[in-house]
Description:
Bound molecules: alpha-D-galactopyranose
Strand content: 15-25%
Number of strands: 12
Largest sheet: 5 strands, mixed
Strand order of the largest sheet: 1-3-6-4-5
Radius of gyration: 20 Å
Oligomer: single chain
Helix content: 40-55%
Structural class: alpha+beta
Amino acid sequence: MRDAFREAFGCDPEAEARAPARVNLIGDHTDYADGYCLPMPLPCATRVMMARATAFSARSEGHPPVAFDPSLPPRGDWSDYVAGPLAELAKAGIDVPPVAVLVASDIPQGAGVSSSAALEVAVIRAALLLVGANLPDAEVARLAQRAENLYCGVNCGILDQMASAAGRAGEALLLDCRSGEGRLVPVPSSFRFRVVHCGEGRRLAEGAYNERRAAVEQAASLLGVAALRDAAPGDLEHLPHDIGRRARHVVAENERVLAAVAALEAGDNVSFGRLMTQSHLSLAEDYDVSTSALDRLVASMLAAGASGARLTGAGFGGCAVALLPPEADAASWWAEVSGENPGAWLVA
Length: 348
Ligand code: GLA
């Protein structure tokens, strides 16, 4: 990548950073309700190299080179995920001079494993190194999320950016999206997860995501609470039917995350798996964010012997995650799953 940088910009990079993709083990569509999530970093990552230049420009394989300016409105292309974080840094009082930026990534895009959060986090980290500044992980994540909300126009929660900024390999991160704090929970070696792309990219995701978020906010306001984090299952009975179903997912999912952390700490593979599968059913039936390809994939992951399986991330296509029981032969499990789902491929 250093050679590619020199070739592209005629100078050496002055700063570089790397940020990983994530899989969310359980706790989806809870982050924007001040709830809990349990992500874990994946081996694939985005790397960013930077050097001072006379003007802002960015390159990434497969895209035409872009000249951008973080002080101007978004361009509506991939460089917004570079410009947005630099614009947020400037608002936070950290001015980054014009830079040449090279991006390289082996994270599949549109798969629901946070390729955009990884890019935002890597840009912020490289820029901080370049100017000799430092910020805590949670602050890096917050600036990255604001870039995505305000500059890129995606109304996401903090899950992806926190997972990428504060996650550590081999550990799950119990995220409290109200306090913004994360607690690392070691994953025993007997817990083997597999992340599989169902073969269909995310479709119609943005509008439907914002619609779900609006329903959850409406439920909280009808209940007179700050966020659904503050609601109990018994509070939901009088909500209108459709809003009630959405709220039921969020409230139950928060409970499942805390139960899953207890199961992880106890090394209880069976209970953890059961919670994952319950989470999938709730996301499919109450939250309506699954697809037939994801449902088919999850069903065959379970039929091939997984302790539990669920869609991961926003849904509407992308990936599912399965937990294998300690005795499972991972290769024959995958042979069976891929035989049943010809379009599916193993992400991690
Ligand atoms: C997307 C969003 C996250 C989160 C998940 C669902 O990944 O970016 O903030 O809401 O969906 O859990």
